[in-house]
């Protein structure tokens, strides 16, 4: 699951949870408000009941019932009850039942609110008041109560929630959409970070730079520091390769000098053996140094194949072999390979020089993409190379023939393999095609 989707789902769940709590809280507040209004209304009704009290032959009675007809309808949902010294007087709505008031003690004028079961099993909201009777009513104290069915309060609360839910749903959609927009804006730099890293791998950029939000700047700085460290290590590796080349070539030159002195003294056979050994060692050193340089620069290297090819052809056209040939470049602009420009120039130059040496009239350089690789081809219209000799020419430490064909192919093969590529030879009509398959920048090795 992507980071954006995770955050979006977490945000949506948080919005739903918050709105659910808000709906519950609002319904509770609304219920409390409705109950307070109901208690206030029952207080007025209780005053009306107390105002209608009279003293008759059988004790206290309510001469004037409150105006609400539900007090007179059996189980109508509104009830009153008076517990006086002479007994209990109740509304017609209670019929033959009575309100079971709790045995609590109220001071004079004290008021209590209860939630009690009603005569038909429904829950009731009860307002109870302790009153002191005047002398005309016989004196003493009485408990007066007015009750209403709690079902009406519950119905009002449910209606409120039903009216509230559509608006909460719209609010949830609006907040979720706002969260998505916030995520899109907030995480957009991460997409740019990935694009910049891809540009680094493809060779279109050299550094991450500092134009990032504050939270991403340390990461970009660490990547740049890693790139700088790798470049420094590559430079040190190239310097070590150059030092090795100088250190080995000087003794080889001394061996060649000794061979020349031996030949001057008439020891032709000994001189020839020393020169052959020195040449073989020189070829091995050259090839291994080329491989070491390529490996040191592999990974973050990138070269424009067409640019390298055009520069090579411009040089080769000024050589005796190249001046007589028709050079063709069929490499699309912007074709890049994961190889240092110097290494690509060395490998492609070895193939092009070899082709120029054997071509009759034409050499073509081409490129095409294939499954994350670039196939660079050098085709000449010469006599070609017999299939049985091709493997030996590409083999490591393979001997060059008298024309130098083997050395050029071997160096190109070594450079290609060090970069994760491969050199293949195939017949052309006429001639030979040498194809160097190299990875594209950013492609897996």
Automatic annotation (TrEMBL):
The keyword Cell division does not apply. It is an enzyme of class 2 (transferase). This is histidine kinase. Residues 243-442 form the Histidine kinase domain. SMART domains: HATPase_c (SM00387). Gene3D superfamilies: 1.10.287.130, Histidine kinase-like ATPase, C-terminal domain. It comes from the Bacteria. InterPro entries: HATPase_C_sf, HATPase_dom, His_kinase_dom, HisK_dim/P_dom, HisK_dim/P_sf, Sig_transdc_His_kin-like_C, TCS_sensor_his_kinase. One of its GO terms (cellular component) is plasma membrane. Its EC number is 2.7.13.3. It is found in: Membrane. Transmembrane segments: none annotated. The keyword Hydrolase does not apply. One of its GO terms (molecular function) is phosphorelay sensor kinase activity. It catalyses: ATP + protein L-histidine = ADP + protein N-phospho-L-histidine. Keywords: Kinase, Membrane, Phosphoprotein, Transferase, Transmembrane, Transmembrane helix.
